[in-house]
Amino acid sequence: MSNYIVFLTLSAATYAIFGLGLNLQWGYTGLVNFGHVAFMTVGAYTTVLLSLQGVPLWIAAPIGGILAAFLGLLIGLTTLRLREDYLGIVTIGVSELVRITIQSDKFTPITGGVGGIQRYELPLNFAPAVPNYFTKLGFIGLFAAVMGLASWRLWVWGRQNTNKMWQAVLGIVSFFIIYICGAIDLYNYDDRAGLMLLTVTTLAVIYLGLEQLISSPWGRVLKAIREDEEVPKALGKNVFWYKLQALMLGGGIAGIAGSFYAWQITSLYPSNFEPLLTFNAWTIVSLGGAGNNVGVILGAVVFWAYDTVTRLDWIKSLPFSSDQVGAFRIMIIGLILMVIMLWRPQGLLGNKDELTLGK
């Protein structure tokens, strides 16, 4: 049971990082990006290819994020002056171009083509040895600090929204269960537990950094651009430059998510980066609430809770083939999304008064 909780925590944290990048672009700035997976692809392949050349992972992963941000720069310089619908179309094309380039015969000697890349280095992998007792205690203490920070932020949010205090308490209880299961796996160490610790710690750092940026004057300009970019233009703000910064930073965050995604799946193939991942990110942001970083994390948790429930034995009893079961699961998440858009267009934690989506 604890192993499965660790897997779900790792998956939800990776997708939460991925979703936070999209939330910065769309939720806060209003940039329609339907090719978000392109940034994840660049981050994943850069990290893995550099690690195979002997570059330490703690250097390779940030470089992957930087190159993903550079892709955002290239996209932004050529498309940000387009209308929103054209921007969305171009980003879809870029994501497919990146994937097709990776699997093309010309780049197969580098990227592995459709055959992919296997047996690359993973972080916090001590095999065949195991970390000593004090290292394990340090990992467990760090995990306790991250879970404690998350619980405290939920408690503060519950105090500020008294009608939602029960949701905060439920979240805190969930964090406690995750901590217990994670601490057990960290003590009986395996590399997946170490990766989970690294992922949730990175998620916490990215979340806190984004919260500081969004509450700064820079973040307020992004919100003004989202609502009506003519207003910040009239105040002398370089709207194009702010949009470019948001696209690059969101892309860099998605690139970091790509590193963790590559480490989680342990084998890298172009088919791992299809447009469905972008759809999943949009689902997560829409579920939790665009323009709300806590909501994005909640959306990732809800998304993976749904994914888990629809993989249990009950769904196998339905009169569908395996392919039909997969289509059925996607159909249900689409219906859930439609209901939420009708019931709460701002998402579970979004502020309807703040978003043009709900007006």
What's the short version?
The protein is mainly α. It has helices at about 1-30, 35-50, 55-80, 85-105, 110, 135-160, 165-185, 190-215, 215-230, 230-235, 240-265, 275-290, 295-310, 320-345; strands spanning about 115-120, 265-270.
Beta-strand residue percentage: under 5%
Q: And the CATH topology?
A: ABC transporter involved in vitamin B12 uptake, BtuC
The chain-level structural class is mainly alpha
Low-pLDDT stretches are: none
Largest sheet, described in full? 2 strands, antiparallel
Globular, elongated, flat, extended or rod-shaped: what is the shape? globular
Work out the radius of gyration.
20 Å
Q: What do these coordinates show?
A:
- The chain has 359 residues and is an all-alpha fold.
- The chain has one domain: ABC transporter involved in vitamin B12 uptake, BtuC, CATH 1.10.3470.
- It is built from 14 helices and two strands.
- It has a two-stranded antiparallel ribbon with strand order 1-2.
- The longest helix has 28 residues, at 133-160.
- The chain is globular, with a radius of gyration of 20 Å.
- 41% of the residues are buried.
- The mean pLDDT is 87.
Keyword list:
globular; 359 residues; mainly alpha; 14 helices; 2 strands; 73% helix; ABC transporter involved in vitamin B12 uptake, BtuC; two-stranded antiparallel sheet
